[in-house]
TrEMBL record:
Residues 9-155 form the Fido domain. PROSITE patterns: FIDO. It comes from the Bacteria. Gene3D superfamilies: Fido-like domain (1.10.3290.10). This is Fic family protein. It comes from Aquibaculum arenosum.
Length: 172
């Protein structure tokens, strides 16, 4: 999509990618926002391990609230520079749980599509940082504060040293 100039931060691309990412036997539905397919009522939780769970907006027939939140969020993100827009979209998609399954994976594809569309290398979370990623995501779901995750994602970028500010004198 990026190579052909067809990528955009849009619902049609987001749902198309989810249709690829989440298509499997266990997924309730894929390629549509929760409530736009046959399932109109079930709202999945995100397990936070020992911290319980996070419950996103409810699934409603036609997904009116999910569509409103998506459109408002994407409009707000247009004011951001590309790197911030990309990483913020990843967290936005993960938090809002627009789909029944594959939200983080689909949102990472969207993040990297935004980056690559602006000539910026994609972000990949190394396997060695998976536990750290998961712990920081739990804190993000609990606090809704994106600061820690934004810094983590920037630190996973191949050009992290150029993106992140230099460490402060006190070592923080």
């Amino acid at each position: 999509m990026v190579k052909n100039g067809e990528f955009s931060l849009s619902k049609p691309i987001f749902t198309e990618l989810n249709g690829i990412v989440a298509r499997k036997e266990e997924a309730l539905e894929w390629g549509v926002f929760r409530g736009e397919g046959q399932e109109k009522n079930y709202t999945p939780d995100v397990s936070l391990g020992e911290h319980g769970h996070y419950t996103p907006l409810p699934t409603l027939p036609g997904a009116p609230e999910l569509n409103r939140v998506f459109n408002a969020g994407v409009a707000d993100l247009q004011a951001c520079e590309a790197f911030e827009r990309a990483t913020a979209f990843f967290l936005f998609g993960a938090l809002q749980q627009f789909f029944f399954d594959g939200n983080k994976r689909t949102s990472r594809f969207m993040m990297n599509g935004v980056l690559m569309s602006h000539g910026i290398d994609a972000i990949s979370v190394p396997a060695a940082k998976t536990q750290e990623f998961n712990e920081k995501m739990v804190r993000f779901y609990l606090s809704k504060d994106a600061t820690e995750m934004m810094k983590f994602l920037a630190g996973c970028h191949p050009e992290a040293e150029a993106i992140l500010p230099p460490p402060e004198e006190d070592g923080n």
